[in-house]
Amino acid sequence: MIGYAGLSHLGLVSSAAAAAKGFDIVAFDDDASLVARVRSGDLPVIEPGLPELMTAHGSRLEYTADASALARCDVVYVSVDVPTDADDRSDARPVERLLGVVAAATAPGTTIVVLSQVPPGFCRARRASVEAGGQELYYQVETLIFGRATERALHPERFIVGCSDPARPLPAALDGFLRAFDCPVLPMRYESAELSKISINTFLVASVATTNMLAELCEAVGAEWREIAPALRLDARIGPHAYLQPGLGIAGGNLRRDLMTIDGLARERGVDAGLVDTWFSGSRYRRDWATRVLNVRVLSRVEDPVVALWGLAYKENTGSTKNSPALALLDAIQGVRVRAYDPGVPRDAALPACVHRVSSPLDACAGADALVIMTAWPDFRTIDPHAVRAALRGTTVIDPWGVMDQASAGRAGFDYARLGTPARETVSC
After folding, report:
1. Based on the domain organization, do 34 and 145 belong to the same domain?
2. Rounded to an integer, what distance in angstroms lies between the CA atom of residue 209 and that of residue 328?
3. What is the pLDDT of residue 428?
4. What radius of gyration, in Å, describes the C-alpha atoms of the chain?
5. What mean pLDDT, rounded, does the chain reach?
6. Nearest 10 degrees: CA dihedral of 380, 385, 387, 393?
7. Greatest alpha-carbon span in the chain
8. Is residue 76 exposed (0-12), middle (13-18) or buried (19+ Cβ within 10 Å)?
């Protein structure tokens, strides 16, 4: 039996995927009200495919607020989300607290695995206290990506496992569980595993920053980034799965958190991490791309403008607004009237007073001088540009992600702006 301690986004997805692989699961959280919500199907997160997965394998999922139920498990994962502060610095204290609860509740011989992301040195420093109770402590790199978490939990690329001694075989129960997912298992020392996820995200940031800079150059010189990206993917040194989607800087919490961790570790140990400062600076600049375009094309030309905004979340398929470019845009244009729609962000989310939440994408467009699409929600792609044009007062569409088909936008008569694409003249209907 496999246990999960922490009904976080990470814990909910991971436990459901484990049940889908045929394992009986105890999913514990000491927040009884949260456990009751989950039992009733009222999930605290938005994640495509998760409700269906939990329903399909509900007979193997036991949700409980009683920590003693973990004593029946051979392997227990600590799966609480790691919070970050306003400066995107991690706070590992919730992980440490829950690790103590799990160590007290489980039997000697149990394998305890920290699945929450922690800084290098965390597990080594806590190994002795866990093993004093007869349990073994391991670390496993989580692969959570909001909006794709279910898919990645069911079909992981690999498992990276931190061990006190990577030369020793993994405990049989843990090894058997990991092998059920049919992917490579990479044991390594604690510190290497803890730094692996941060390293992966750091390389991703490098790709994001390079892509964004080149995409803006495309806009300036008349090149088209969508034509360049396939050539890069065919280069073996870059690869078919390279992240080459232009974006609005580093949003959300995970990448920024890992950059702050790298920066802190480097400063403590006298390592030059000037690249991190460069990436943060570039991210702030890219974040404001939509604001710059909106100012040039609309706000500087229209008296008392109204802006339609599709999307408040930092990315599609999540309700999170952590470091959201949409909120940065709203902050930059305070005083401008905005009609905003987002299907996932709670209605009580804090927004500037000039923002009016509406009930549909087309309602947001009613009488507006421009449409700005800041979150690539899948449903937005199905909306007819001609219906948008009929609702808008103006003709400007700012679409960083290419949610609206560019050719259709031209036929509808829009002045259309997209990341990595040179400006096009408006096409008459």
Report:
1. yes
2. 18
3. 36
4. 24
5. 92
6. 110
7. 75
8. buried
Of 155, 189, 223, which residue constitutes the final position of a domain?
189
The yes-or-no verdict on residue 160 having pLDDT over 90 is: yes
Measured distance between the N- and C-terminal CA atoms of the chain, rounded to whole angstroms: 63
Sheet holding 306-310, edge to edge: 355-357, 337-341, 306-310, 370-373, 396-398, 415-417
Residue 78: name the closest of 53, 103, 108 by CA. Answer: 103
Residue 425 has pLDDT above 60, yes or no: no
Q: Which domain holds residue 373?
A: 288-417
CA distance linking residue 186 with residue 163, whole number of Å: 10
Residues in Cβ contact with 202 at an 8 Å cutoff, skipping those fewer than 6 apart: 258, 259, 262
Helix (H, G, I), strand (E, B) or coil at 341: strand
| CATH classification of the domain holding 369 | 3.40.50.720
Mean local confidence (pLDDT), 345-350: 91
Measured distance CA(387)–CA(127) in Å, rounded: 61
The encoded tokens of residue 229 equal 């990206």
Q: In whole angstroms, how far apart are CA 364 and each of 85, 347, 361, 381, 404? A: 32, 15, 5, 15, 16
The total of other beta-carbon atoms located within 10 Å of residue 245's CB is 17
Pair of tokens at residue 376: 């690539």
131: DSSP letter: H
Q: Contact at 8 Å (CB) between 44 and 50?
A: no
Q: What is the pLDDT of residues 176-210, one digit of tens each?
A: 999 999 999 999 999 999 999 889 989 989 998 99
List for the chain the helix, strand, coil content (%; round to 5): 45, 15, 45
Give the pLDDT confidence of 287-334 residue by residue, as tens digits.
999 999 999 999 999 999 999 999 999 999 999 998 999 999 999 999
Both 233 and 340 in one domain: the answer is no
* Domain co-membership, 60 together with 159: yes
Domains identified in the chain, total number: 3
**Mean pLDDT across the stretch 17-25?**
97
Residue 424 is predicted with a pLDDT of: 60
pLDDT at 259: 86
Same domain, 113 and 177: yes
pTM above 0.90, yes or no: no
The three-state secondary structure class of 163 is strand
Residue in this structure with the two tokens 């390594």, named with its chain if needed: 188
